[in-house]
Design goal:
membrane; transmembrane; mainly alpha; NADH dehydrogenase (ubiquinone) activity; NADH_Q_OxRdtase_chainM/4; NADH dehydrogenase activity; 505 residues; globular; 21 helices
């Protein structure tokens, strides 16, 4: 049920991604020394993009039989079946909102960037524009173009403005993601030539009668794995913590908060939607891999001495739960998976804002033995980190609870043993979060110089408050997300169920 009406003749979805491309052109015209003007332009347009996503969210009618709304269709290379097709449903809608939240709060956190400010902001906004494009694309070729636009700026953002073996982290991330892109291209070629239609329109490709069962089983693998690499799926996860640690704070927020969600989104929107029989065939191996993700990631996070590495491995664990929800292949599990993408995106953006900007940039250390007693110095950072940690632990009243509850319910229906084993990750998560809170914010103040650390800025307070409020609202009233999500994942779940019935014949 839509809360507002928007003019139908306005290309709202194009405006969303263009709202972050336009400021890159404006920033390019500014002089390098105009740093404050560059920051203002970037932050203002990041807010405009967030406002546009809110308008689209409020105007979306999830009860309509037409799940894809705000459609835009323009021929691009029609002779090759490539067209500019945009649209949103209940799956992509929360992802748009998530990207808007993270890029705006990331812009606020980026206020301290002094080195090559113009280039940094241009790349940051282009990255977020590419993310928007992926979430609204209904043409597979167009989606891949936006996907590459989102991934490629990461190399420069980490390599130039990062820290802690930044060149190594940037190169490792790029090689892994380019390898994943190669798998995606292979899957796209198979989709194009194996079906009865020469098109990249995913609405048409999702008609499973276009592809034989054997084609789906074979080519589901490269298509799914290509996106799963970006989602940090085991055993392709090792690039992720390294990239998190090396990236500057706002890039870490986008990296963990949004970019990893592109991978999970692609697994669902592309691989599972187009090849339901192939997905159904490989559900058990995928579920086992996600189990390893969840438990292994949480266990390794527990052993870390570096604050940022702990959050990096925590992301691996939580993305394992996201993919586990997809492997459940039922409505409740996949609803939980999409909700987990949103909840984890907000939570981990808040984590990295605290760890990278509020703590590390002031103390110049991320090592637990060198930290302690910071609650007395920066109580706001401690409070928002604790709230994010409680969401990570799945505490009722916060967004993470509903996401994990749906995922475990869905997995119990599909593979009960895996659901039970994956539950081990919950107490481990609680363990490393509580240990980190004690080591960093409570206990003895290890360094007397920490008493004179610079105060938090207004921009940092604003970013923290925004992300915390979203976590709390999503925990108290999750229906604003779950209702549109459920309405859109249900047809995919039904297609997977039909595929399972056909596979037993």
């Amino acid at each position: 049920m839509n809360l507002i009406d928007l003019p139908a003749n306005v290309p709202w979805l194009s405006l969303i991604w263009l709202s972050l491309v336009i400021p890159t052109l404006i920033i390019a015209l500014l002089k390098p020394e105009q740093k404050q003007e560059i920051r203002i332009v970037g932050a203002v347009f990041a807010f405009i993009s967030l406002a546009l996503t809110l308008l689209v969210y409020l105007a979306y009618d999830y009860r309509s039989p037409e799940k894809f709304q705000f459609l835009e269709e323009t021929p691009w290379l029609p002779e090759l079946g490539i067209n500019y097709i945009l649209g949103v449903d209940g799956i992509s809608l929360p992802m748009l909102l998530l990207n808007g939240l993270v890029i705006f709060t990331g812009a606020l956190i980026s206020w301290n960037i002094e080195e090559r400010t113009r280039e940094y902001w241009a790349l940051l906004l282009l990255l977020a524009a590419g993310v928007y494009g992926v979430f609204v694309s209904l043409d597979l070729f167009l989606l891949f173009i936006f996907y590459e636009l989102a991934v490629l700026p990461m190399y420069l953002l980490i390599g130039i403005w990062g820290s802690t073996r930044k060149e190594y982290g940037a190169m490792k991330l790029t090689l892994y993601l380019m390898g994943g892109s190669a798998f995606i291209i292979l899957g796209m070629v198979a989709v194009y030539f194996s079906g009865t239609l020469r098109t990249f329109d995913m609405r048409l490709l999702a008609q499973s009668a276009l592809f034989t069962r054997d084609v789906q089983i074979i080519f589901f693998v490269p298509l799914f794995l290509g996106f799963a690499v970006l989602a940090g799926m085991f055993p392709f996860h090792t690039w992720s913590p390294t990239g998190h640690v090396a990236a500057p704070t706002a890039v870490s927020m986008l990296h963990a908060g949004v970019l990893m969600k592109l991978g999970a989104y692609g697994c669902l929107r592309v691989a599972m939607w187009i090849f339901p029989e192939g997905a159904n065939y490989w559900l058990l191996p995928i579920a086992i891999a996600t189990l390893i993700n969840a438990v292994y990631g949480a266990t390794i996070a527990m052993t870390q001495r570096d604050f940022k590495f702990m959050i990096g491995y925590s992301s691996v664990s939580h993305m394992g739960l996201t993919l586990m929800g997809l492997a459940a292949a039922n409505t409740i599990g996949m609803t939980g998976a999409v909700l987990q993408m949103f909840a984890h995106g907000v939570m981990t953006a808040l984590f990295f804002a605290v760890v990278g900007r509020m703590v590390y940039d002031r103390t110049h250390t991320r090592q637990f033995p060198e930290l302690g007693g910071l609650f007395a110095v920066m109580p706001f950072a401690a409070i928002v980190f604790i709230i994010a940690g409680l969401s990570s632990m799945g505490m009722p009243g916060l967004a993470g609870f509903w996401a994990e509850f749906n995922i475990f319910m869905g997995m119990w229906q599909r593979f009960p043993l895996i659901a039970v084993l994956a539950g081990i990750s919950i107490p481990i998560t609680a363990g490393y979060i509580l240990i980190a809170v004690y080591r960093v914010f409570f206990g003895e103040l290890k360094n007397p110089e920490f008493r004179t650390l610079p105060k938090l800025t207004a921009q940092e307070y604003a970013a923290g408050v925004i992300l915390v409020v979203v976590l709390i609202i999503s925990g108290i009233y999750p229906a604003y997300l779950t209702e549109p999500i459920e309405a859109s994942v249900q047809p995919i779940a039904e297609a997977l169920a039909r595929a399972g019935t056909l596979g037993m014949r």
